Amino acid sequence: MGVSLKQMQYALAVARSGHFGRAAEACAISQPALSQQILALEGQCGTPLFDRLRSGIRLTPFGREFITLAQEVIKRAEALDSFVLGHNGQPDRPIRFGLIPTVAPYLLPEIFPALNRDLPDVDFTVSENRTEALISGLVDGNLDVALIGTAAPDNGPRLVSRPLFDDPFVLATASSEDTSEPVSLASLAPERILLLDEGHCFRDQAIAACRLGSDPARTFAATSLSTIVEFVANGQGVTLLPRIALRKEATDPRIAIHDLVAPGAGRLLSLVWREGSPFGTTFDRMVEVIRTGRGAGS
Fold first, then answer.
1. What is the assigned CATH class of domain 95-165+268-293?
2. Three-state SS for 124?
3. Would you give the DSSP letter of residue 171?
4. Relative to the CA of 87, which of 116, 200, 220, 254 has its CA 20 to 30 Å away?
């Protein structure tokens, strides 16, 4: 049995991330399953591809040559897929659509009915992951298209990025607090600002907006905006929220929402896919549907 494309994709993900756990997250499989595939691949090769270190992994000399060849094989396989599918942009399988966690629960209920209505011949499988994992999924071929809240990286394989709409930030405080409108971010006490944990692009954007520095170790970190909002409602700090989240996260009467002093802060949501995808026409249609299909209150 020869080396499979899937095994090569897994090896590329490990090589790119330098970590089995992050590679498994990017490939949307469990870490034991990915590790088993890599071990099977190394068994076929008769030699390790990776040195397992306490700090992560490192490619062996054989592994470096393997990855170089695997990248070329996957590139050619994608070119063959494009040739077979043609250029009409009509997929013959479900589109693998990834979204970041600070977008998915707030935007999907609005845009998914519109996507199903305006693209009735297209099926979707939807997943949620952090920006880095989504980009890795696009690069490795495990995802077709992703909705992110930051600019696509300009290193590595080229990605097509289409802007969707601006998503301004607002400040959430406990309603019991006396807060003047609009709020200057410079006036906020850094130790009171609650953040998502590391790896979320929204965390990085909040840190930049509030000028907290590169390592705000004294700040709280949570796994979801809903968790942070509960802490805010209990008077344990304040946080920035994207405006698209307000209809879900700001319904508690214990929460007060405040506009920011101009120019404020925010993010640009974008749809991203790999350049040369045979589904580019479909993704361009998705961009138009998302721009027009979301609710007026977003």
1. alpha beta
2. strand
3. E
4. 116
User: Phi and psi of 20, rounded to 5°?
Assistant: -65, -40
Phi, psi torsion values for 93, nearest 5 degrees: -150, 170
CB 272 within 8 Å of CB 161: yes
Q: ∠ at Cα 272 (78, 249), nearest 5°?
A: 140
Rounded distance between C-alpha atoms, residue 131 and residue 134, angstroms:
5
Give the Cα separation of 183 and 251 in Å (integer): 20
Specify the domain boundaries for CATH 3.40.190.10 within the chain.
95-165+268-293, 167-266
Give the single-character DSSP code of 260: B
The reported pTM is 0.71
- Relative to beta strand 195-196, strand 95-99 is unpaired
| pLDDT under 50: residue ranges of the chain | 295-298
Name the pairing type of β-strands 145-148 and 266-274: antiparallel
- Centre a 10 Å sphere on the Cβ of residue 186 and count the other Cβ atoms it contains: 8
